[in-house]
Write a structure and sequence with these properties.
It contains seven helices and seven strands; from the N terminus they run αβββαααββαββαα. Helix content is 39%, strand content 17%. The longest helix has 24 residues, at 87-110. β6 (180-183) and β7 (186-189) form a beta hairpin. The chain has two domains: 1-135, Phosphorylase Kinase, domain 1 (2-Layer Sandwich); 138-244, Transferase(Phosphotransferase) domain 1 (Transferase(Phosphotransferase), domain 1). It has 244 residues and is of the alpha+beta class. It has helices at 8-15, 64-68, 76-84, 87-110, 148-167, 204-220, 228-240, and strands at residues 19-28, 32-39, 47-53, 118-121, 125-129, 180-183, 186-189. It has a five-stranded antiparallel β-sheet with strand order 1-2-3-5-4, with helices on both faces. A two-stranded antiparallel ribbon has the order 6-7.
C-alpha cells in the first residue's frame, strides 16, 4: 500500500516516528477506518492498528444521548455549543468521543483487561495494539465457530473482562461478538467510544444487560449455557456493594 496516504492522522504517526508503512486496510466502516501498520523498529512494537475516526455526522450510533448521559462537559462554551448543536459543538463532541475511547483504553489496559494498548493519538485517530499478522487481521468472534473447550474458555475470559470493566467503572455499552477479536486462542474487546460510567449513567444497568445478553447469545450457539440475567444481577449487586 502507498505510504503517502493523504491523511493527516497517518502523516502524524509517520512524522512522530511511530510507523514506517501502512500494510493493508483492515476495515472501513461508518464509525472509523482501521489500517494495519508496521511500527518503526525503535518502538519495539511490530504491528500496530491506526484507527481513523469518521466525522460525527457519518457515525451510525443512533442513540448518542443514551451513551452521553452522565458525562460532564466542564468547558462552558463547549457545553453550550454541544447543546445548541452548532458546528463547533459537533466538532467538540466528536473530539470528546475520540478522547473518551483513548482514556477508556488507557484505564482498562492498565488494570489488565484484554483490550488493545493505546500508544498515541491525534485529534482524529488512535494508534493502538494490533491483533493479526502481516497478511491478515484477527477475525471477529461472530465469524467463528469455536470448539467446545475454546468456547468455554473464551466465554470465561470475556465474562471476567466484563466484571473487570465494571470494577473500574466502565460498561462497554455496545458489546457483542462483532467487537471481539479472536487471535491465537485469546479474545480482545475493541470499540469503546460509547462506553459509559455506571456511577453516573442512568441507562447503565440496561446497557450491561444488553452486553451480557449479546455475549451469552453468541456462546449459546457454541454450546455454552449461561443465564445472562443471573450474571447481571450478581455483577450489579457486587458493584453496588463495592465487592468486585
Amino acid at each position: 500500500m502507498d505510504t503517502t496516504l493523504d491523511h493527516a492522522a497517518l502523516d502524524y504517526f509517520y512524522a512522530e516516528g511511530w510507523i514506517t508503512q501502512v500494510l493493508y486496510l483492515v476495515k472501513s466502516g461508518k464509525e472509523a477506518t482501521v489500517y494495519c501498520c508496521e511500527a518503526r523498529p525503535s518502538t519495539g512494537l511490530g504491528l500496530v492498528a491506526a484507527k481513523l475516526y469518521r466525522a460525527r455526522e457519518h457515525r451510525s450510533f443512533r442513540n448518542d444521548a443514551v451513551y452521553q448521559a452522565g458525562r460532564v462537559i466542564l468547558d462552558g462554551h463547549a457545553r453550550r455549543a454541544v447543546k445548541n448543536k452548532s458546528r463547533f459543538g459537533r466538532e467538540a463532541q466528536q473530539g470528546m468521543w475520540i478522547n473518551h475511547e483513548w482514556e477508556t483504553l488507557q484505564a482498562l489496559h492498565a488494570v489488565g483487561c484484554d483490550v488493545p494498548e493505546p500508544f498515541a493519538r491525534t485529534e482524529g485517530a488512535i494508534l493502538m495494539g494490533y491483533r493479526g499478522d502481516e497478511s491478515a487481521s484477527a477475525p471477529r468472534l461472530h465469524e467463528l465457530s469455536l470448539p467446545p473447550d475454546e468456547a468455554h474458555h473464551a466465554f470465561q475470559v470475556l465474562m471476567r473482562n466484563v466484571e473487570l470493566f465494571l470494577a473500574n467503572n466502565v460498561i462497554h455499552g455496545d458489546l457483542s461478538a462483532y467487537n471481539v477479536l479472536y487471535w491465537q486462542g485469546a479474545p480482545t474487546v475493541i470499540d469503546f467510544p460509547q462506553a459509559v460510567d455506571p456511577r453516573f449513567n442512568p441507562h447503565a444497568v440496561a446497557l450491561l444487560e444488553r452486553d451480557v445478553a449479546n455475549l451469552c447469545g453468541y456462546f449459546a450457539r457454541q454450546g455454552v449455557r449461561a443465564d445472562a440475567k443471573a450474571i447481571v444481577r450478581d455483577l450489579w449487586r457486587r458493584f453496588l456493594r463495592a465487592e468486585l
